[in-house]
Design a protein that fits this description.
70% helix; single chain; 103 residues; mainly alpha
Length: 103
């Protein structure tokens, strides 16, 4: 009787071990490193920026620097570009530029 119990226990243990090893392992979600998290955040914030403006922004963002306020000249360029894209002229353009430069 004891021998049967031992054999049964050994077989049960082997079956359990085999089932555990054979069971598909679900990969644990890989945590992002701090650098990868920073890259993701900066990339999201850089939406809409292109060329040198994006490069400058990404460089300072990845270094952890806070972005400086946009200079008046940069605002003027951006607002002028937007006004031209909207084909605004005359009083409409003046009003748009005024509003844009205040913001």
């Amino acid at each position: 009787m004891r021998t049967q119990i031992r054999v049964l226990a050994a077989v049960s243990l082997l079956v359990f071990a085999a089932a555990t090893v054979a069971a598909p392992q679900t990969p644990a979600k890989k945590e992002l490193t701090p650098q990868q998290q920073r890259m993701s955040t900066c990339n999201t914030q850089a939406a809409g920026k292109k060329g040198d403006e994006r490069k400058t922004f990404m460089s300072s963002c990845l270094k952890g620097e806070t972005p400086a306020k946009t200079s008046q000249q940069d605002k003027m360029k951006s607002c002028n570009k937007d006004a031209s894209a909207k084909s605004l002229k005359g009083d409409e353009r003046k009003q748009f530029m005024s509003t844009c430069l205040k913001g």
